[in-house]
Amino acid sequence: MTTNEGPGRTIQSAEITLNIISELQTQDATRVTALANRLGHSKSTIHNHLHTLEDQQLVVREDGEYRLSLRILDMAMHVREQIGNYDVIRNEADALAEETGEIIQFGIEEHGKVSYLYKATGEQAVETLSGVGKQQPMHSTSLGKTILAYLPQDRTERLIESMDLERFTSNTITSADALRTELEEIRQRGYGIDDEENIEGLRCVSAPVENGDTVLGAISITGPLSRFTDDRIHGELSELATGAANVIELNTKFSG
Amino acid sequence: MTTNEGPGRTIQSAEITLNIISELQTQDATRVTALANRLGHSKSTIHNHLHTLEDQQLVVREDGEYRLSLRILDMAMHVREQIGNYDVIRNEADALAEETGEIIQFGIEEHGKVSYLYKATGEQAVETLSGVGKQQPMHSTSLGKTILAYLPQDRTERLIESMDLERFTSNTITSADALRTELEEIRQRGYGIDDEENIEGLRCVSAPVENGDTVLGAISITGPLSRFTDDRIHGELSELATGAANVIELNTKFSG
DNA sequence: CAGATCGTTCCTGTCTCGGGAACAAATTTA
DNA sequence: TAAATTTGTTCCCGAGACAGGAACGATCTG
Questions:
Q1: Which of A101, A113, B5, B190 is deepest in the core (most CB within 10 A)?
Q2: pLDDT of B1 higher than 50
Q3: Crossing angle of helices B71-82 and A71-82, rounded to 10°
């Protein structure tokens, strides 16, 4: 089940345009013919779509090469502000990064995955692949599992059903029942952990930011096995995470 | 001349989808009927387009309300990196902000306007309306005029022809010929200034970042009339701006 | 200067897609 | 509680949009 079959029909020409946008996102600079070949459409089709995109100022053309315009940056700013109280999240994450020296991330659920809204990097932090806007599976990350644990029951169950629980390391949870047990455990103690389930050598702790009967997202601390002992994780690190989550919670609760 | 009549046709359905995206960018959370009314289309039409957008994971739906997904953030990251050497620009801008305590901005030309790629704010900086991704006219800003001065001759002329040279303050340049003279002056001394031409009480200095026979963009220092005397502008401030521009120039010249 | 490749334009037939109406579900009002 | 709105969704249909192919210049390459 890869395609999310929602209600309604799907518009072909819109799909083409959106596919062009996706192409322009990843490929540095692209020309008409290259896009036509890559997307399997005629040159004239791509040509007209690019013309439309340029007309709407979403794409810029510099001597034959096309790229997304800076309007995307403006859109990104708006998107950030539409999610809870972005400033509070950033402040708390920065503070945590400063204090722990590790990687702090804030993630929310989108389309059955964790999407990273913000990332703060401490002094001695390890670099991870994930960056702002990137996605990760939910079942193998502490952020994902923590969010799953605090979403409304039915929503959680529907998400689990649609997951394929791919294995990434020997620790990855790959059965739905094991995942359900893990979520119950997270609810018991109030925070989630990732014990090398997504990437070998990396551990995380996550605390949920609740919002009424659902969950806004979660904040996590990530670090190497060497510095992330069981004692530290279940001690100071989990406390720091839940503390930050609480501050965010208090500041967003009354704003929407 | 508002619409940029380029070559080729324009795709209606794509326009609808892109208009929805624009709507979602500005309005916080929107539902089917509201969008239908605002864009002047039937509910079924909007419905199908939203379905397409959600299918492509560019839009998220949370109990009936739609918003742009965090994929936009990912796209924004890519866009930044596609423009010259973003890291160098950021470093130089931050350094300048630190040193001067004022607002530093880096802008490029897009669709006949200045778009801001990065903004660094010093300690005692005045807040301006413009943010990352936002647009400003070229004829009334130091960034815009400086970029115009260093674009290829024919490109500059075509841009001037298509501008409407709106007046914002008593100092705004509103005639094409006066603008051409100003550009020549900028080329003479190597940097451009904005003497309360865009906003009352604000002055700027900008230096171009050249790139072969064209210009990548420009970097500017903005501040209040009180601190930006003629002496300072034509002395240390213009030197700081051109210095930073040169560093960026050197670092981008060999990578693109 | 030939050959190839590019972007652009024009045309045509098919099937897409926008709109309207009817329906169902949720929300509001009395 | 029931009636009355308003919502999101589905279905159908005919007009016309739009994807593709071919042909044309323009540009690049050797």
A1: A113
A2: no
A3: 150
Within an 8 Å CB–CB cutoff, is residue A250 touching chain B?
no
| pLDDT at residue number B128 | 62
Burial A143-155 (b: 16+ CB within 10 A, else e): bbbbbbbbbeeee
pLDDT at B129: 56
Alpha-carbon distance values, A178 to A136, A160, A165, A185, A206 (Å)? 19, 11, 11, 11, 19
Q: Which residues from 26-55 of B have any strand C atom under 7 Å from their CB? A: 40-45, 48-49
Report the CATH number of the B12-69 domain: 1.10.10.10
Distance CA B28, CA A82 (A): 6
Pairwise CB contact (< 8 Å): B57 & A111: yes
Instruction: Provide the β-strand partners of residue B67.
Output: B60
Q: Please give the helix or strand (H or E) that residue B91 lies within, else none.
A: helix B86-100
Question: Rounded to whole angstroms, how far apart are CA atoms A209 and A108?
Answer: 10
Q: Where in the sequence of chain A do the CATH 3.30.450.40 domains occur?
A: 77-253
pLDDT digits (tens, 9 = 90+) for B96-139: 999 999 999 999 999 999 999 999 997 766 666 568 999 999 99
Tell me which architecture the domain covering B79-253 has in CATH: 2-Layer Sandwich (3.30)
Which of A233-237, B56-60, B76-80 shows the lowest per-residue confidence on average (mean pLDDT)? B76-80
Residue B226 above 60 pLDDT?
yes
Residues A145, A194: contact at Cβ < 8 Å? yes
Q: Which amino acid is at A147?
A: I
Residue where the block lists tokens 């990332």: A119
CATH topology of domain A77-253: Beta-Lactamase (3.30.450)
Give the residue, A5 or A32, on which the prediction is more confident. Answer: A32
A39 in reach of chain B (CB within 8 A): no
C-alpha dist (Å) from residue A133 to A70, A112, A129, B73, B148: 16, 14, 12, 5, 34
Domain with CATH 1.10.10.10 in chain B: 12-69
The residues pairing with B64 across neighbouring beta strands, listed in sequence order, are none
Q: Find out whether A160 and A180 touch, Cβ atoms under 8 Å.
A: yes
* Average pLDDT, integer, range B167-180: 98
Q: List, in sequence order, every residue forming a beta bridge with A136; answer none if it has no partner.
A: A114
User: Cα B127 from chain centroid?
Assistant: 16
Distance CA A208, CA A198 (A): 19
Tokens of A12: 């072909």
- Cβ–Cβ of A56/B18 closer than 8 Å? yes
Whole-angstrom Cα distance, residue B72 to residue B114? 21
Q: Quick count: other Cβ atoms within 10 Å of Cβ B2?
A: 5
List every span in chain B annotated with CATH 3.30.450.40: 79-253
CA atom of B181 to C1′ atom of D28, Å: 37
Q: Find the Å distance, CA of residue A13 to C1' of nucleotide D24.
A: 27
